């Protein structure tokens, strides 16, 4: 009886409608999660260059509020970096994940050369990053630590967040924005997140906290 029902004209129509609805829902979800680019460029991305940082700025604080979280982003320096994503991790817990869910380990200079993957391995945990070198690595640990950074990324809007979500390990990207300090309250308690502004420090407090306003991924630019 059930087998016969599948072959009736009405059941075929219902099946077709369900397929169309499912396809439409999937298409809508993909579209809503797809970032929108504003420009296309042809020039190559060069991760061999050092980040461009300008410390003498006078930018106003940026207020962010969501639920019990009330913070202000205080720009410390304008920051522009072309780098290879050596590792990527998404965080879900805590107030910081509400504003900066992604950490990227960014490297520039010699660590980005393809052959270096045989000598250096990167990992992330609890908002820190770690690297291990083989005994025959041609780069010193000092060079690696001053040419890589665990960067806490705070997207300026949903479109930037969608781009960050899309970026994969091993991709060369370019980011524009600010190194910032974050101050505010969460559930009636004070919170703080401070960015490093030098590539020479290591350990706790050495990570960059970056407010990202613009991203280049491949030949497309997103704002």
Beta-strand share of residues: 35-45%
**Which residues form runs of ≥5 with pLDDT under 50?**
23-31
Total domains: 2
Distance linking N and C termini: 57 Å
Order of helices and strands: HHEEEEHEEEHEHEEEE
The residue fraction in helices comes out at 10-25%
In short:
The protein is α+β, with helices and mostly antiparallel strands. It is built from 5 helices and 12 strands. The chain has 2 domains: 2-32; 52-222, no CATH class.
Overview of the molecule:
It is a single chain. It is globular, with a radius of gyration of 22 Å. A hairpin with a 2-residue loop joins strand 6 and strand 7. The protein folds into two domains: 2-32; 52-222, no CATH class. The protein has helices spanning 2-6, 9-32, 95-99, 141-146, 158-166; strands spanning 37-40, 52-54, 62-66, 69-90, 102-107, 120-125, 128-133, 148-155, 172-186, 189-193, 208-217, 220-222. The protein is an alpha+beta fold and 223 residues long. Helices cover 22% and strands 42% of the residues.
